[in-house]
Write a sequence for this structure.
């Protein structure tokens, strides 16, 4: 007897369904949308929009895809969510929403933690699309670990009087790290809501069931309530068993916008954080990251600091103790090296250069590293594993080293909770040198720390001490430039600049070593082109881009025709190259939020201009020596018989400028920009 296999129950009655694939007995597949199934036939609109009537006798299988819908809610009048109903009534044409791209009607997170460590979290969002730029909110995704159960509960677009549900065919599961087998532990579920346009409301919910939480797979949630666009209702809640130690924190809540409640339930407790009617904010130049200034909450399981330190160190020691691959590699890279500092440098150079960094966050794989043997064998590692390999090799070499979990300054200070989930990267502390090492990037030297990691908050896993990676001094970031400029009577110039780079800039120029000569030359030509539209490169020389033992130096020579403007046959008028400074960052008369700096920095310029024969200085701008807080500006002009010399120094040793300090800082930056626009005049 011929048999047809259906993925859902089919009756002999006619009905309307959504479908995906019809498989014929000869193996062919027809894709489209099934509109009707009768006793003898299947009706399908194929991808060419042609209706096909298929005889069931010729079919092997029909695969039907379901809408991810809310039962009983087929039209707007069926909607039961009171918050959504209220949000749909909001008049978004009012002035308060004029600049908003979208309006968050609902943003809810709900967790339920069982006494055995299992937990489930549910996310529900409802967003009204107000501008074209926000239509991409319809394309969303979330991560979950392999082994977790991840489900989209429903997804829909509400347009005018109609509801369009998300179909299973618009949902895709994929592995973001499938090319990295050693780290392939996380999945991503992507979905695209249908028929989204300006005025649409997108409404969706998904859940993830976790089988456990523990020290090495921690439960930790942090959430910032305020968004650039307005939020009507935002709620974060957690139900947990009474025998679980939960810690929770509220930050930046001076105006008590976050409402907190705690309830006792039978054998459980419920904590709830909510905020209503947040107006959003207007972005300002160089404003701090949202977690530093807006109301936020964090909560998680406190596993106990002594317990965490003990178990992590026991695990680390077990991974290192019998690993012979470390000894073999140390014998190779530290051969004939007895000096401790040179050993540290050799180990560092191996880890940053020979172990390729892979961008896999700890939360997407594990907070416990792989074995050194596996890391060395793979020749690639994430930040956790690179730090651990560096730490393990130092320890095996008899060098005093502490492993640290770290949280960047942009994420905000550490919470007083023994939970590894609050950390985003790792590093190694050398107590004898009082130095933190971030062994990730092949273009950073041992004593260089990328600006994004300076000022980070750390937990020392040996001492249990909470501390900070220091911000480096200004002279360790930026550049120092010495320039010789020869000007002729026609206004043409030939310039030779020697620039030494530090910190992030040094790493940027070391990266040129990965390019071929033609690519490097193109980069240098682009650099010259930014100096002046008529600039033509004559030559260039790169030094120290292939070593971490010295700062990169670029010497570049170029010419510019008609650089100076002639004033009759007597005057030449010009500005010095690469000395024009902007005041765009302080263009607003006042600020709501502080100015935030990732690092301290210093820029030095020394330009000496050789004047044409027979010319002398007619006008030079006035020199300035100004400072505010730990920001200083020096712009010094002086001249001799046949030359002009310009010395410029900008040094910033501050981490932020508050709104109250802004007006004084603004004056400083504007004065610098104004002076840089003045002309130099020489005459016969």
């Amino acid at each position: 007897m011929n048999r047809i296999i259906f993925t859902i129950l089919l009756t002999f009655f006619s009905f309307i369904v959504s479908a995906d694939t019809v498989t014929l007995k000869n193996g062919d597949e027809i894709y489209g949308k099934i509109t009707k199934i009768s006793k003898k036939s299947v009706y399908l609109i194929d991808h060419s929009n042609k209706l096909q009537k298929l005889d069931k006798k010729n079919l092997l299988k029909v695969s039907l895809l379901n809408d991810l819908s809310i039962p009983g809610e087929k039209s707007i009048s069926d909607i039961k969510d009171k918050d959504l109903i209220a949000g749909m009534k909001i008049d978004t044409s009012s002035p308060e929403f004029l600049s908003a791209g979208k309006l968050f009607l609902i943003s809810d997170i709900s967790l339920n933690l069982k006494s055995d460590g299992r937990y489930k979290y549910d996310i529900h969002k409802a967003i009204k699309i107000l501008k074209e730029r926000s239509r991409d909110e319809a394309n969303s995704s979330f991560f979950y670990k392999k082994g977790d159960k991840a489900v989209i509960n429903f997804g829909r677009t509400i347009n005018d009087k109609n509801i369009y549900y998300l179909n299973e065919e618009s949902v895709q599961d994929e592995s973001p790290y499938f090319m990295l087998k050693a780290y392939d532990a996380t999945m991503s579920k992507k979905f695209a809501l249908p028929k989204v346009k300006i005025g649409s409301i997108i409404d969706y919910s998904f859940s993830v069931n976790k089988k456990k939480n523990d020290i090495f797979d921690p439960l930790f949630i942090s959430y910032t309530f305020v968004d650039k666009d307005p939020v009507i209702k935002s709620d974060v809640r957690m139900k947990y068993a009474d025998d679980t130690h939960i810690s929770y924190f509220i930050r930046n809540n001076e105006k008590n916008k976050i409402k907190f409640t705690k309830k006792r339930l039978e054998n459980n407790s419920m904590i709830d954080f909510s905020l209503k009617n947040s107006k959003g904010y207007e972005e300002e130049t160089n404003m701090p990251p949202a977690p530093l200034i807006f109301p936020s909450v964090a909560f998680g399981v406190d596993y106990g600091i002594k317990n965490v330190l003990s178990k992590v160190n026991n695990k680390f020691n077990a991974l290192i103790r019998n690993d012979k691959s470390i000894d073999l590699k140390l014998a190779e890279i530290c051969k004939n090296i007895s000096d401790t500092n040179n050993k540290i440098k050799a180990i560092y150079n191996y880890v940053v250069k020979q172990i390729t960094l892979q961008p896999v966050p700890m939360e997407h794989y594990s907070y416990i590293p792989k074995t050194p043997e596996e890391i060395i064998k793979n020749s690639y590692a994430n930040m956790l594993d690179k730090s651990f390999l560096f730490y393990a090799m130092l320890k095996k070499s008899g060098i005093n080293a502490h492993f640290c979990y770290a949280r960047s300054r942009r994420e905000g200070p550490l919470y007083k909770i023994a939970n590894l989930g609050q950390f985003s990267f790792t590093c190694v502390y050398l107590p004898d040198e009082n130095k933190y090492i971030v062994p990730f990037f092949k273009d950073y030297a041992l004593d260089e720390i990328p600006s994004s990691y300076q000022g980070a908050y750390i937990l020392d896993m040996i001492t249990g001490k909470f501390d900070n990676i220091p911000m480096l001094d200004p002279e360790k970031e930026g550049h120092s430039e010495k320039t010789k400029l020869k000007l002729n009577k026609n206004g043409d110039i030939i310039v030779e600049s020697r620039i030494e780079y530090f910190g992030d800039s040094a790493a940027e120029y070391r990266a040129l070593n990965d390019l071929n000569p033609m690519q490097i030359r193109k980069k240098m030509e682009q650099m010259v082109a930014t100096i002046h539209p008529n600039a033509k490169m004559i030559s260039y020389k790169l030094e120290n881009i292939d070593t971490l033992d010295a700062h990169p130096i670029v010497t570049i020579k170029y010419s510019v025709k008609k650089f100076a403007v002639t004033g009759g046959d007597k005057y030449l008028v010009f500005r010095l190259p690469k000395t024009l400074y902007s005041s765009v960052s302080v263009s607003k008369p006042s600020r709501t939020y502080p100015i935030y700096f990732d690092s301290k920095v210093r820029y030095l310029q020394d330009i000496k201009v050789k004047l044409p024969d027979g010319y002398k200085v007619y006008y030079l701008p006035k020199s300035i020596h100004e400072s505010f807080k730990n920001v200083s500006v020096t712009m010094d002009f002086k001249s001799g018989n046949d030359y002009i010399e310009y010395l410029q120094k900008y040094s910033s040793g501050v981490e932020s400028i508050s709104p109250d300090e802004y007006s004084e800082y603004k004056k400083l930056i504007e004065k610098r920009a104004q002076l840089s626009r003045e002309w130099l005049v020489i005459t016969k």
